[in-house]
């Protein structure tokens, strides 16, 4: 018997990348309730659900002659400002907004104010990570939450006023923290390279710009390394700390970004070897 030849099945094409921006805009426009926008009632019944193109154009502050070809998929590539205006007019949530920016091949501007407190769920997570040292920071390196193991390893954050509760400030200015790092030059260099990337991603953050200006004015090493313009975002790495009393603790660190709080970074330390784990255990026991 001759074996039957089975042709490989071709999965159906469910997404046309060239037409998806138009389809997404139409779907979101048609899902909106005109009453939510306080739009006046019209004598003529609406032939399509949702808002009209003219109404979206007016809400976004753009020409209807621009919205029509966008919804018809004529190959227009809107600017970042137009995408932002459409996202506001259509009341897109953060995930939908990011999706529209991705479809338009534009980079969204970060307009959200940096968090100054930790979300309760993240603060609880930091505590639950014990006995691993952990802390939560925003893009400025402001420390928003920490557990006892991290405080014992670095400094008692709770005893500090909120203003200097910043990892870069502590590394540069705090007399005890300055002496913790065995390879301090590398730690500062990598921290500055990360801070420069955060500064470029948040040009509207005046407080971050003020911090950088303060560091450059007060610390010669920071000013020198900042001028080198190195860019590096460390998702993981290692540090070696020498605690008062002589214990040396080598740690690997991981930096994780929560999806719903992408401006924040969860930093977790793990002992790099048995000797470091023993030293960390003694430190926490004290």
TrEMBL record:
Record-linked CDD domains: HTH_XRE (cd00093)
Pfam family, one: HTH_31
SMART domains: HTH_XRE
Region span, Disordered: 28-50
The HTH cro/C1-type domain, residue ranges: 43-97
InterPro entries: Cro/C1-type_HTH, Lambda_DNA-bd_dom_sf, MLTR_LBD
The protein, known as: Helix-turn-helix domain-containing protein
